[in-house]
Specification:
This protein is mainly beta. The protein contains one helix and six strands; from the N terminus they run ββββαββ.
Length: about 90
């Protein structure tokens, strides 16, 4: 699954919460890409963007909806955020 969020102005993203009613089917790995207009920089060559952070999730984290802190430096001035789950990760095999 790929989710893209565009913001009207730069924001500071400090944390995420990922919760599922069925933790066994929830993604185990999440990749975050910040400040790219699209997931692929160049559609023709399909260059992969720089992943800002990779999150490894346990079933307990997803079942309880635990707050996941993000790297402070990487998410200070975020204009867009792409979230790629391990279920169908377009960036690379998770």
């Amino acid at each position: 699954m790929l989710t893209a969020e565009q913001f009207n102005q730069a924001v500071r993203v400090r944390s995420l919460v990922i919760q599922s009613s069925d933790p066994a089917r929830a993604p185990k790995t999440i990749k975050l890409v910040a400040n790219n207009r699209s997931v692929f920089e160049d559609v023709e060559s399909a260059d992969e963007p720089q992943v800002a952070q990779v999150l490894e999730l346990s079933e307990e984290d997803v079942a309880q909806g635990k707050l996941i802190q993000l790297r402070f430096v990487r998410f200070q001035k975020v204009n867009s955020l792409h979230v790629c789950s391990s279920l169908s990760c377009a960036l690379s095999p998770c």
